[in-house]
Amino acid sequence: MSETTATEDRAIGEHVTLLGAVRAGKYPHGGSLLVKGSEEALLIDPSLSLVGRGSLPRVDRVINSHCHEDHIAGNHLFPDLPWHLHALDRCGLGSLDGMMEIYGYAGPSADYFRKALVEDFHYVPKPDAVAFVDGETFDLGRVSARVIHAPGHTRGHCCIAIEPDGVLYLGDIDLTSFGPYYGDAWSSLADFERTLGEVRKLEARRYATFHHIGVLDGREPFLDRLDRFAAVIHSREQRLVEFLHEPRTLDEIVAHRFVYRPGDPVPYADAVERRSMSQHLERLIGEGRVREVEAGRYLAS
Ligand SMILES: [Zn+2]
Q: What is the 8-class DSSP label of residue 237?
């Protein structure tokens, strides 16, 4: 697959189409879902791959699984439709400042990202974006899309269950080998772990992720991927404990890199390492597995 050619649109249920994605949905791209009932149609997570697409699907509403740049990059193509997302992420669509709060970056990471949101991800505010809560169901006429609050990645991250097709859209519980992302101000490691436990119980015929893992048929491949995805959390924590065999500062932890690989050219990597690994550090201190041996230096017990 080339860097610019999109995959073909593909039906993944009688009423659900996975729209074509550039780079097979690898970030910053992703696979949007079109859901059509007899009365209404929804577009879930309009991606960057919709920008420049020949024809846009005709829909009545836009649904965002959460407020991250890659999941809203195509929202601007539907300026007159209602945009819906969970109440806890709604501030991100309200204003660019609200969007930046979700990431919580400071300094050069913030400057870089604010610019990228507008120039690369086509960010436009929508102060009248509509908030939903857990359990809210969009009745499309013989087809329903039910919102399942699944926080951790962001506070308002949601999965969406589409029936009668038996499709569960997982958003950024993306099942990649990178593992769970909980590196923003709006992210929570503890919530993400709880969510992984809850999502594991959800029965579906097909499990759809936004990024390049795509759609998994049936429970077995889903559980296999989910368990490997969840295991990345443990592996990061284990590597942190090993690194703390001598006293280290948080700056040294950030520089060592546990989420990204050393040398990965990610402009906001330091911010993400700091937020992600602080959560692990706090937990390890709480469990007595790590202690602060002198001001700002941590050692594994
Ligand atoms: Zn995301």
A: H
CA atoms within 13 A on the CB side of 249: 5
Whole-number Å distance, alpha carbon 30 to ligand 1 midpoint, is: 11
Q: Ligand 1 centre from 172 Cα, in Å?
A: 5
Distance, CA 155 to ligand 1 centroid (Å)? Answer: 11
Cα separation, 91 vs 255, in Å, equals 31
Q: What angle do CA 264, 25, 18 make, to 5 degrees?
A: 165
Three-class secondary structure of residue 139 per DSSP: strand
Q: How many CA atoms lie within 13 A of 274 on its CB side?
A: 13
Q: What are phi and psi of 211, to 5 degrees?
A: -95, -155
pLDDT digits (tens, 9 = 90+) for 179-190: 999 999 999 999
Q: How far is the CA of 297 from the centre of ligand 1 (A)?
A: 32
Which has more pLDDT, 156 or 4?
Answer: 156
Query: Is pLDDT at 1 greater than 50 in this prediction?
Result: no
pLDDT tens figures, 256-299: 999 999 989 998 999 999 999 999 999 999 999 999 999 999 99
- Give me ligand 1 centre to Cα 63, in Å: 14
Q: Tell me the pairing of strands 215-217 and 206-209.
A: antiparallel
Quickly tell me which residue has 């990202």 as its tokens: 113
Centroid of ligand 1 to alpha carbon of 295 (angstroms): 34
Report which DSSP code applies to 71: G
Q: Which of 29-38, 107-116, 159-168, 227-236 shows the lowest mean pLDDT across its residues?
A: 107-116
Q: How far is the CA of 102 from the centre of ligand 1 (A)?
A: 11
Instruction: Quote the pLDDT of residue 2.
Output: 52
- Between the CA of 69 and the centroid of ligand 1 the distance, in Å, is 7
| Ligand 1 center–CA 98 separation, angstroms | 16
